[in-house]
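Researcher: Please generate the 3D structure of the following complex. Treat every line as part of one assembly.
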Amino acid sequence: KAGVTQTPRYLIKTRGQQVTLSCSPISGHRSVSWYQQTPGQGLQFLFEYFSETQRNKGNFPGRFSGRQFSNSRSEMNVSTLELGDSALYLCASSTGTGVNEKLFFGSGTQLSVL
Amino acid sequence: SQKIEQNSEALNIQEGKTATLTCNYTNYSPAYLQWYRQDPGRGPVFLLLIRENEKEKRKERLKVTFDTTLKQSLFHITASQPADSATYLCALVPSAGNNRKLIWGLGTSLAVNP
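Model: Done. Output below.
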């Protein structure tokens, strides 16, 4: 089974721009979660999508948004980028049907905002 | 406030010894706790899950304990190898509410020296 695929691997943007990140989950997985990882804050939950619907949301501003397509692929968008948005963005997939499921992570997109 | 804490200092041990990593939490009553391994530039990889009613879980050279009285989980790697060098993350799901979103510690870096 192919793993979770995230593209692009690296991104450099400037303040004020917007960015779209993509995540393809493991085949058969219907849940995709997005996390932001920084050295000081660790992994911070952004949101979770299940069957094209946002099921859970973290405490991030509205500049962070996402969506999920019918094939379970997900995209995350960040508008009006700020320097503090520089981070590793990780997506994780799971079947989405259990409470105590393990997550399968992609390698992440390293975003640098200049 | 609610917190989940792991040893912030890196752990250096000699090959063949047992590594013990700590995860402490406050003001949570977690339904379960998970441990992940993360290598530089990669996403976390699931290792073990332990439920609130379980005291101990084992998988090959790995062992996790869960003490809900002490609000602590210990993660052990026996007969450690240089290939075990990585950052180890603990994550929990709070029991309260509709919470599928994991709360993460910052991780402990482990270096196993040959």
